[in-house]
């Protein structure tokens, strides 16, 4: 290296040295150097009051976080969307004056975006993660956005901690891995030192963290909102989306393999379902509480780390959403859509949930950087179906051409228009909640129980679901390098369940907890996916077919499956026609190289008398892998040999037979069950 080059490099290093900062061991300050006394709680009007706009520390922290990623979303970057319509079943006039919830004859257009949370836009879709479930209703009163997740609770109680959560969850900054995964030190260090995350973590470690598809997962508004009727009476409300097909999940080994076989698995499933006319449907449910009942529970209803057990507060089903049209352009629609929980209509209002209060600031702030300025509402996918008029002008991306000389309020030159509208004429008026209290950075004592509902969730799980949760903790913490962090998490979850903590402590070589446990014995059957709807509709069945198959009988089975809404796809050792014994022929959709058992809900081994060695090897692997993932397996004719070879024929969910009608009926019933966990318990 030349002396001149060394001098230049040394000069550059000296120049950069002033920008290198080691934060470890330092005191926390704002970007202006002001020392911060509290970083856990936003500034509120009383412990349970609303967040105050004057909280400069919260706004600086959240603004910086909102603007960290260009151009993709900071979180929920990996998403897919579809258009549809919503119809209410009966008027909700008793509870809310929102017009789209009044008339069953009215169909309201919607746009729904599903997403993972942690990964980048190019990450796989079957990773263990929460899933976003955001719905934009294009109502005659303006756009209403219900922005939620597939899990009814969240990691944190106050929005000021959101940047910390996501920083810990994202790839570690010194090496930028792992991608789209929580199985690393910083995430679990955050969990262990922010124990309000316990409830959300156990949900994420459950089967809910790896849903079978967007069409087969629940959605939740997470926060407590308000319904307000035309008499001014308010009810607290929580929103639920209930999938008509039921809530179903993958198994972990399967999810990992799908990530390699088809990282677009969930979006492909959504696209193909709509393209085939198998429109995904979700029923909208609400949990309602009178204001008089706000304090009757052993948890705070404003705490986003808590749910309202459905056995205590039943879900009232009020309408149905049908997704019936794919997007025309992913960027223009899916990527440019801008959701915001503050986009409400008359009859829907907010609570003082401190996580919700922070989101009301953060979402608009995020769109300003991601979509290039304040006119993101003018992009086609974001435009309301009703007209909009105000005195906002100019800015990046402006599309509206406003006429006239007046752009301010009040005015006389345009007769003081655009004019405000009274509540009676449909103007939005905030619910007049009494608010009083000292300005404090604090948390109500009613928010301090972090473990009881995590225990409730654990108690509600079936034995197979508990085994999956233990395995998930064992995997995730097995990837953590810090023994201290591992032990902290063991000790933390001993407060949830000694059984759970002891089990995964043994798997990762940590010291099992000697004390802990919970006095909570209550369970909520609604939380177990084993109690969900079980239907065969739209399930995909891989049909293993070789030359010389029994033509008429196999055709009869396939027709019986299709009649139940099941989608069979032919798999063979090569593409082209597969010939039956009666001169019939079926076209192979896939080969053993281009397909995998993990991409199907069930396997039908039909066989064939003229199978090649390559076919036999491929088919045998398909069947054995599907068996290990607890999937339904049906076999007739030559296909039964693979069951016998693998000693599978007498196992739950494995159907074999010669009687076509009887076999098809039993196989459909097995497919409806989704998985046959009894194999796991044998």
Automatic annotation (TrEMBL):
<feature type="domain" description="Catalase core">
    <location>
        <begin position="29"/>
        <end position="417"/>
    </location>
</feature>
<feature type="region of interest" description="Disordered">
    <location>
        <begin position="1"/>
        <end position="32"/>
    </location>
</feature>
<keyword id="KW-0349">Heme</keyword>
<feature type="active site">
    <location>
        <position position="76"/>
    </location>
</feature>
<comment type="function">
    <text>Decomposes hydrogen peroxide into water and oxygen; serves to protect cells from the toxic effects of hydrogen peroxide.</text>
</comment>
<feature type="binding site">
    <location>
        <position position="359"/>
    </location>
    <ligand>
        <name>heme</name>
    </ligand>
</feature>
<feature type="active site">
    <location>
        <position position="149"/>
    </location>
</feature>
<dbReference type="InterPro" id="IPR020835">
    <property type="entry name" value="Catalase_sf"/>
</dbReference>
<dbReference type="GO" id="GO:0042744">
    <property type="term" value="P:hydrogen peroxide catabolic process"/>
</dbReference>
<feature type="cross-link" description="3'-histidyl-3-tyrosine (His-Tyr)">
    <location>
        <begin position="340"/>
        <end position="363"/>
    </location>
</feature>
<feature type="binding site">
    <location>
        <position position="73"/>
    </location>
    <ligand>
        <name>heme</name>
    </ligand>
</feature>
<dbReference type="Pfam" id="PF06628">
    <property type="entry name" value="Catalase-rel"/>
</dbReference>
<keyword id="KW-0575">Peroxidase</keyword>
<keyword id="KW-0376">Hydrogen peroxide</keyword>
<dbReference type="GO" id="GO:0004096">
    <property type="term" value="F:catalase activity"/>
</dbReference>
<dbReference type="InterPro" id="IPR029062">
    <property type="entry name" value="Class_I_gatase-like"/>
</dbReference>
<dbReference type="GO" id="GO:0046872">
    <property type="term" value="F:metal ion binding"/>
</dbReference>
<comment type="similarity">
    <text>Belongs to the catalase family. HPII subfamily.</text>
</comment>
<dbReference type="GO" id="GO:0006979">
    <property type="term" value="P:response to oxidative stress"/>
</dbReference>
<dbReference type="GO" id="GO:0005829">
    <property type="term" value="C:cytosol"/>
</dbReference>
<dbReference type="InterPro" id="IPR018028">
    <property type="entry name" value="Catalase"/>
</dbReference>
<feature type="binding site" description="axial binding residue">
    <location>
        <position position="363"/>
    </location>
    <ligand>
        <name>heme</name>
    </ligand>
</feature>
<keyword id="KW-0408">Iron</keyword>
<keyword id="KW-0479">Metal-binding</keyword>
<feature type="compositionally biased region" description="Basic and acidic residues">
    <location>
        <begin position="1"/>
        <end position="26"/>
    </location>
</feature>
<dbReference type="GO" id="GO:0020037">
    <property type="term" value="F:heme binding"/>
</dbReference>
<keyword id="KW-0560">Oxidoreductase</keyword>
<dbReference type="InterPro" id="IPR002226">
    <property type="entry name" value="Catalase_haem_BS"/>
</dbReference>
<protein>
    <recommendedName>
        <fullName>Catalase</fullName>
        <ecNumber>1.11.1.6</ecNumber>
    </recommendedName>
</protein>
<dbReference type="InterPro" id="IPR010582">
    <property type="entry name" value="Catalase_immune_responsive"/>
</dbReference>
<dbReference type="InterPro" id="IPR011614">
    <property type="entry name" value="Catalase_core"/>
</dbReference>
<dbReference type="Pfam" id="PF00199">
    <property type="entry name" value="Catalase"/>
</dbReference>
<dbReference type="InterPro" id="IPR043156">
    <property type="entry name" value="Catalase_clade2_helical"/>
</dbReference>
<feature type="binding site">
    <location>
        <position position="370"/>
    </location>
    <ligand>
        <name>heme</name>
    </ligand>
</feature>
<dbReference type="InterPro" id="IPR024712">
    <property type="entry name" value="Catalase_clade2"/>
</dbReference>
<feature type="binding site">
    <location>
        <position position="113"/>
    </location>
    <ligand>
        <name>heme</name>
    </ligand>
</feature>
<dbReference type="InterPro" id="IPR041399">
    <property type="entry name" value="Catalase_large_C"/>
</dbReference>
<dbReference type="InterPro" id="IPR024708">
    <property type="entry name" value="Catalase_AS"/>
</dbReference>
<dbReference type="Pfam" id="PF18011">
    <property type="entry name" value="Catalase_C"/>
</dbReference>
<feature type="binding site">
    <location>
        <position position="162"/>
    </location>
    <ligand>
        <name>heme</name>
    </ligand>
</feature>
């Amino acid at each position: 290296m030349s002396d001149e080059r060394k001098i230049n490099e040394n000069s550059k290093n000296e120049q950069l040295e002033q920008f290198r900062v080691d934060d470890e061991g330092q005191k926390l300050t704002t970007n202006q150097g002001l020392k911060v006394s509290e970083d856990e709680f936003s500034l509120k009007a009383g412990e349970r009051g609303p967040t105050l706009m004057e909280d400069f520390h919260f706004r600086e922290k959240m603004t910086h976080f909102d603007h960290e990623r260009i151009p993709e979303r900071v979180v929920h970057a990996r998403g897919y969307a579809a258009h549809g319509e919503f119809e209410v079943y009966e008027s909700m006039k008793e509870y809310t004056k929102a017009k789209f919830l009044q008339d069953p004859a009215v169909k309201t257009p919607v746009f729904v975006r599903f997403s993972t949370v942690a990964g980048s836009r190019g990450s796989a879709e079957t990773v263990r993660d929460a899933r976003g479930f955001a719905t934009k209703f294009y109502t005659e009163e303006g756009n209403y956005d219900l922005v939620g997740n597939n899990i009814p609770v969240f990691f944190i109680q106050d929005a000021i901690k959101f940047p910390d959560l996501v920083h810990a969850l994202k790839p570690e900054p010194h090496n930028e891995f792992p991608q789209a995964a929580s199985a690393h030190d910083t995430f679990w260090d955050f969990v262990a030192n922010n124990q309000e995350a316990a409830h959300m973590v156990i949900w994420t470690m459950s089967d809910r963290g790896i849903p079978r598809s967007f069409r087969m997962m629940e959605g939740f508004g997470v926060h407590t909102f308000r319904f307000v009727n035309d008499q001014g009476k308010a009810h607290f409300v929580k929103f639920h989306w209930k999938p008509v097909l039921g809530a179903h999940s993958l198994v972990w080994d399967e999810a990992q393999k799908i990530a390699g076989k088809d990282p677009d698995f969930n979006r492909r499933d959504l696209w193909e379902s709509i393209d085939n006319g198998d429109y995904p449907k979700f029923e909208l449910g609400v949990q309602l509480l009178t204001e008089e009942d706000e304090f009757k529970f052993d948890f705070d209803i404003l705490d986003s780390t808590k749910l309202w057990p459905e056995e205590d507060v039943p879900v009232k089903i009020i309408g149905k959403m049908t997704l019936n049209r794919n997007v025309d352009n992913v960027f223009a629609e899916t990527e440019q859509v801008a959701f915001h929980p503050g986009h409400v209509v008359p009859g829907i209002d907010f609570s003082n949930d401190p996580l919700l209060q922070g989101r009301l600031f953060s979402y608009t702030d995020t769109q300003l950087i991601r979509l290039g300025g304040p006119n993101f509402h003018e992009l086609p996918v974001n435009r309301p179906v009703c007209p909009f008029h105000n005195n906002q002008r100019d800015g990046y991306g402006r599309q509206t051409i406003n006429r006239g000389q007046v752009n301010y309020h009040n005015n006389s030159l345009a007769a003081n228009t655009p004019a405000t509208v009274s509540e009676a004429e449909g103007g939005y008026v905030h619910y007049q909640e009494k608010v009083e209290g000292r300005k404090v950075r604090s948390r109500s004592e009613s928010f301090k129980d972090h473990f009881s509902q995590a225990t409730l969730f654990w108690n509600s799980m079936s034995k197979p679901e508990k085994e999956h949760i233990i395995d998930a903790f064992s995997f995730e913490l097995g990837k953590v390098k810090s023994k201290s962090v591992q032990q902290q998490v063991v000790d933390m979850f001993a407060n949830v369940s000694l059984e759970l903590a002891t089990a995964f402590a043994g798997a990762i070589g940590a010291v099992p907890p000697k004390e802990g446990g919970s006095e909570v014995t209550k369970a909520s059957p609604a939380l177990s996916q084993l109690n969900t709807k079980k239907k065969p509709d739209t399930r995909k069945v891989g049909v293993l077919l070789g030359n010389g198959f029994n033509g008429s009988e196999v055709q009869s089975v396939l027709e019986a499956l299709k009649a139940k809404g099941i989608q069979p796809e032919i798999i063979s050792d090569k593409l082209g026609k597969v010939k039956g014994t009666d001169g019939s022929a079926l076209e192979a959709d896939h080969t053993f190289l281009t397909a995998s058992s993990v991409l199907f809900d069930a396997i039908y081994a039909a066989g064939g008398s003229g199978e090649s060695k390559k076919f036999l090897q491929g088919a045998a692997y398909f069947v054995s892998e599907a068996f290990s993932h607890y999937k339904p397996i049906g076999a007739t004719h030559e296909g039964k040999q693979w069951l016998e070879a693998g000693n599978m024929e007498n196992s739950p969910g494995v159907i074999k037979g010669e009687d076509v009608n009887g076999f098809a009926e039993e196989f459909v019933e097995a497919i409806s069950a989704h998985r046959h966990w009894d194999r796991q318990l044998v």
